[in-house]
Specification:
12 helices; 12 strands; 304 residues; NAD(P)_OxRdtase_dom_sf
Amino acid sequence: MKYNTLGKTNEEVSVVGIGTYQFGGEWGKTFTQKEVDGLFEAARTENLNFIDTAECYGDHLAEELTGAAIQKDRDQWFVASKFGHHFHGPNDRTRHYDPEDVQKQLEASLRALRTDYIDLYQFHSGTDEEFQDDKLWTMLDKQKKAGKIRHLGLSVKKQDYMDQIRQAEAVGAETIQLVYNRLDRKNAEDAFPECDRQNLGVIARVPMASGYLSGKYTPGASFEENDVRHRHPQNEQEAALQEALRLKEKLPDDVPLAQWALAWCLANSSVDAVIPGCKTPEQLVSNAKAVDLLDNKDSSLFTI
């Protein structure tokens, strides 16, 4: 495994992390604690230490499963979570950025994760109006001073987030999490110069384009109703799968598309880490091996 310093946090994180959105039950599978424990055992073997979760991946469900899995060695992990939503069911969330409510969300996340502190607490996909609330950031700063939060960050929507990035310094944010993958890159690349200027730690989310770059699906694929991809516009889904197939056909036979997709993100010097999801230990191990491609001497590999 390789490690990067996550921006101005000065924390060393594995460049391949573990996304946990799938633990919330919206990706076509319900996880047992035993299955999650197995994933984290594989993560230990591969020397991953970076976990990204959220209050609204299930009603703190992903946090609960994660917290139980890492309780025995909590201090070995860098745990990032988020705030701003209440989960009411699949595709049913309400928005909550009021300082008092966020403080309650934080306490619930700490209980679910079975921890006294969260390494990185992230403002999650809020509007500019919700972001520009001095009382919110004052409350969060107090929680930092109390030791319940170690670092603050932003996890932004796909568009219209430059104002929030420009104001990251003012609110004390040290990291930025944004959508960046081979199929969806322009908005992030436009933001990278400002991220670099502020030394914001950049976390690339959806690095395999919701699994379309996993190599598992071919054009014409369909998804069950309990899978979030079932709600994606059919024309956009088909276009993504067609482009994934084109990329796969251009890669050397011994380079898996999923590993290449992660390495492609990490090959950008602005990106500190990627946080792909996984459903099996085998997928996690495969994700971790993406770092091997970063040592590839063929400079054309990431210009496809």
